Every structure is written in C-alpha cells, then in structure tokens.
C-alpha cells in the first residue's frame, strides 16, 4: 500500500460521463461540478429534471451517451447489477480511448469485469471512495480514497481525475466568500493583491493549503483492498445487520458503548441490503471473515459457559 501525497499544481476541466445516477453518483457529481468539470449522466431511472437543475446533460439513450466524447466514464452502480449493465453497453461506440473508472465497494470483481468487457484501448482505474453522502457531507479532508491504476496509458487524464479527490478545491469558494465580505469582489481580488505583495504571498499560502485539503489517497492492489475491506467494511456491516435483527433500540439508561452500537445499527440499515449482499458475494475474502466472526462468537459462548460452570462448582462447595 502506498500513501500518495503529491498533487499537480493545476488540473484541466474533464468531460465526465456518469453511468448510474443514484445518491452516490449525485453526491460525487455536485463536487465535480463545483470544480468546473463538465458532466453527463445516464441511468435506468429518469433523472433528467434533477440533471437539468444541476447543469448536467442527461442521456436516456446509452449509445448516444457513449458517443458523447467523454474523457472519463465513471461507473456508479450497484455491485450486483455491474455485470448485467456493463455487458449491455455498446462500448465499441466510444470514438476514442477513454478512462473508465469504477467507484464500487469491492475491487477485484469490477476489475475483472471491466477488463473482460472493455476494448483493449480503454484505460481502467479501480477506485473506492471510503465515504458517502453522509460521512462526506462536510468535506472530504482526510477521508480515505483507495485506487489502483489497473491499465493506464494516459497518465495526464488519470492524474486529473485523481486530483478531484486529492485536492477538494471547492473549499476555495468559502475562502473567496470570506474575502468578499471584507469588500473585495472576486473580479477585483487579483489587481488588489498585485499592489500588496505581502498579502498576495499569504493568500497563495492559504490557497495552497486548501488545495491539499482533500482525501487521504491510498494506492493499493484490488486484492489488498478486498482483504482489508473484508476485515473492516464487511465486518462492520455484518455486525450492524446482526444488531438490526436483534432489534436493539436506544434506552433511557444507555452507556456510551451501547450508543455506539445503536449508531452502528442505524448507519448499516441506511444502506441497501443489496450493497451488503454485494460486499459478501463479490469479495472472496468476506466468506472467511464471516466464518471467523461465527467462530469468535462460539468461543465467547464457550468461555461464558465455562465461567458459569466454575462459579456453580464453587457455590456448591460452600
């Protein structure tokens, strides 16, 4: 695993086509728009009105979408529907080499499907933003973004796409808003700063820090991702779903630990069961972690039983 800290000083606007415009696709799109990228979208559900409101061109026709001269095609669909959706798309209609990116929560499975269905000239970047609309609502600073450059020839386009997450430059909006409160309209900032070199240096330092206030970029193989995710994300969802089956609720005498369990249950069930199923079915390491959890619970039960028997034996001798 490698932690990437480098960031290019600038990034050009990308033409990004999003396949699947559910809550997560919408969540990513809003930041991409603020960064100045040009977005198109297609989805089984008609999101044309929402896209019109956001300034995104919505395509009902998949072929027209693929012919729309995208720099990047971003796949944001459910794990369980991936194979069916990708195999139905006429990727041969794409007119030039394009970077294809997935944002699914498992990585070996989409990597294998993409390499199978995509033309050889298409670049492939497998990613997993380790956050969502709720955990990332206040920004992406220090939130993990995992990726593997599976097949990359166009390094410039790949770097520009990763820059979206590496440097969440939309935070500069608040910086300029602050300056505007002091009487500087945005068009007048540059000439004003040129007359004050000391302030200009300070502003550039602040801007540089803000540009770096993005995700914690983790470059790792799809295999390593799935191993780690099975021990963390899948295990978290499994325990949360188990607590839901137990129907636990907040009480009048909660401990902090129990409050954490209730929050875990609630956050787990907010995600669809299809997501949970995908984490299990399409991560080959999840099965072993489920067995490990069952064995661990059995060991705990055995220790409790032994403790009860020992206590009973002591009491019988009194």
UniProtKB/TrEMBL annotation:
Please give the organism: Melia azedarach
The upper taxonomy is: Eukaryota, Viridiplantae, Streptophyta, Embryophyta, Tracheophyta
Which domain of life, per UniProt?
Eukaryota
Q: What is this protein called?
A: Arogenate dehydrogenase
